[in-house]
Design brief:
Oligomer: single chain
Strand order of the largest sheet: 2-3-1-6
GO molecular function: RNA binding
CATH topology of one domain: Alpha-Beta Plaits
CATH architecture of one domain: 2-Layer Sandwich
Distance between the termini: 102 Å
GO biological process, one term: positive regulation of response to salt stress
Protein name: RRM domain-containing protein
Radius of gyration: 34 Å
Strand content: 15-25%
Shape: rod-shaped
Largest sheet: 4 strands, antiparallel
Keywords: RNA-binding
Pfam family, one: RRM_1
CATH superfamily of one domain: RRM (RNA recognition motif) domain
């Protein structure tokens, strides 16, 4: 299977057909074991420079640097996809913790992208529990209420007269 993917990728690349969608197709067939995450990149590292640095360990199908949408500048990390899992493993062991374009890079296997839906609010687990308010009326509070009622009644009578 890996040999077939390598041959297909080589033909597509030589014909100038390979692009990000084609390389994603190969990545999905092989799984994420041949796709590496590269963190700590220099902000001046290009995709071509990243590809050249990793190509010494095997055939690089795609090298991608993640860019900020607003500033269109590098976010300092990217991904490299190899034609085989063995090549990716060799690149990981050799380049992890090494300097690349003046910065120490962190290389690890890429993790499958998680899908986030919603605004990040926790899921409701049911209605909130009722809060019981307990008040005890004492004799003094009852008498105070009666006094206030009487005062209010007197004030209302004074206002009407």
């Amino acid at each position: 299977m890996a040999a077939l993917a390598r041959i297909s990728a080589r033909h597509l690349k030589s014909a100038g057909i390979i692009n990000s969608s084609a390389s994603c197709f190969f990545t999905q067939r092989r799984g994420v074991a041949s796709k590496l995450f590269v963190g700590g990149l220099s902000f001046y590292t290009t995709e071509q420079g990243l590809s050249e640095a990793f190509s010494q360990f095997g055939q690089v199908i795609e090298a991608q640097i993640v860019m900020d949408r607003v500033s269109d500048k590098s976010k300092g990390f990217g991904f490299v996809t190899f034609a085989s899992d063995d090549e990716a493993r060799k690149a990981l062991t050799e380049l992890n913790g090494q300097q690349l374009h003046g910065r120490v890079v962190f290389v690890d296997y890429a993790k499958a992208k998680q899908s986030f839906r919603g605004g990040g609010f926790p899921i409701a687990r049911g209605p909130p529990e009722p809060v019981a308010v307990v008040t005890e009326e004492t004799e003094t509070s009852k008498s105070e209420k009666q006094k206030r009622k009487q005062q209010n009644a007197d004030t209302a009578t004074d206002f009407i007269e």
